[in-house]
């Protein structure tokens, strides 16, 4: 089986350009086009719709994309396992994570792993809450730093608790409280994350319903915290975000015990590549010492 054709198909879809895919893979544009034509002849139907402005998959191509990724992943896992048996741990790991986890302990963990396993290539991509699980299921990622709910039939290995808090201006009326009862947010001017962003507020509302006065919507924690600093409302986030808390803004924990569990989610630890297994082991060992 000629795997380079599958790799070319995946790369063209990811980069939406034959020219860019050719440059990335070190081939000529006609060479990549020939691989795609060969793959389409092999399967018996078109995989891509080529237009002047962009390239996209056909419905059939979209269905096969997942399996092409699995073919490449299984081939890589096979070679990694052979290397591991021979005492030469190598390979690659594709990791997804929330913005908040990339502001805390995850970068240091990745750096520690790279120092210990220099032959393993690590790629990290930041995702919104809604996109992270989707990318894991589609095979774009080997593992993800996330919190439940996780995809069905995927394994979740907890690492640490991430406490929720309320960000506000230092002269906000709630600043006088040591801790904030959720009921105090009823009618309070409130900065709400946009749909698809972090799901913390919705998680709290499911357990402790409240009705705030929503004044603004934001797509990032940085914007929400900046607006809270200017007394435009309060903003609910996790303590992982407090590394970038500006002067003039303060954080208060909830009176209720509100937190999420951050961990590593992957399809199966038992069937993960040797490289991914070593990464998970290091993450769990590091979390115990936090």
From TrEMBL:
Q: Is DNA-binding set as a keyword in this record?
A: yes
The HTH lysR-type domain is annotated at 1-58
Please name the Pfam families in this protein's record: HTH_1, LysR_substrate
Key words of the record: DNA-binding, Transcription, Transcription regulation
One GO cellular component term noted in the UniProt record for this chain: cytosol
According to the UniProt entry, the coiled-coil residues are: none
Per the record, the similarity remark reads: Belongs to the LysR transcriptional regulatory family.
Which PANTHER family has this protein been placed in? HTH-TYPE TRANSCRIPTIONAL REGULATOR CZCR, HTH-TYPE TRANSCRIPTIONAL REGULATOR YBHD
What is the name of this protein? LysR family transcriptional regulator
Q: Which organism is it from?
A: Emergencia timonensis
Q: What is the lineage of its organism?
A: Bacteria, Bacillati, Bacillota, Clostridia, Peptostreptococcales
């Amino acid at each position: 089986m000629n795997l380079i054709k599958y790799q070319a198909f995946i790369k063209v879809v990811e980069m939406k350009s034959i020219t860019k895919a050719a440059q990335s893979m070190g081939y000529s544009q006609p060479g990549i086009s020939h691989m795609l034509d060969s793959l389409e002849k092999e399967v018996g139907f078109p995989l891509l719709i080529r237009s002047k402005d962009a390239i996209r998959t056909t419905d059939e191509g979209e269905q096969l994309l997942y399996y092409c990724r699995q073919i490449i992943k299984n081939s890589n896992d096979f070679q990694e396992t052979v290397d591991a048996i021979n005492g030469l741990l190598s390979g690659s790991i594709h990791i997804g994570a929330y913005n908040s986890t990339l502001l805390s302990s995850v970068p240091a963990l990745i750096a520690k792993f790279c120092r210990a396993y220099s032959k393993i290539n690590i790629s990290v991509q930041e995702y919104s809450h809604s996109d992270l699980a989707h990318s894991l299921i589609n095979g774009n990622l080997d593992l993800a730093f996330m919190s439940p709910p996780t995809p069905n039939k995927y394994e979740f290995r907890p690492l640490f608790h991430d406490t929720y808090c309320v960000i506000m201006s230092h002269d906000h009326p709630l600043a006088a409280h040591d801790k904030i009862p959720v009921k105090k947010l009823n009618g309070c001017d409130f900065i709400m994350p946009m749909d698809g962003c972090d799901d913390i507020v919705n998680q709290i509302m499911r357990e402790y319903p409240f009705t705030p006065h929503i004044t603004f919507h934001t797509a990032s924690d940085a914007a929400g915290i900046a607006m809270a600093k200017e007394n435009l409302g309060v903003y609910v986030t996790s303590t992982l975000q407090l590394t970038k808390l500006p002067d003039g803004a303060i954080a208060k924990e909830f009176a209720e015990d509100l937190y999420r569990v951050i961990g590593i989610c992957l399809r199966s630890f038992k069937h993960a590549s040797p490289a991914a297994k070593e990464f998970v082991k290091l993450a769990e060992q590091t979390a115990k010492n936090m």
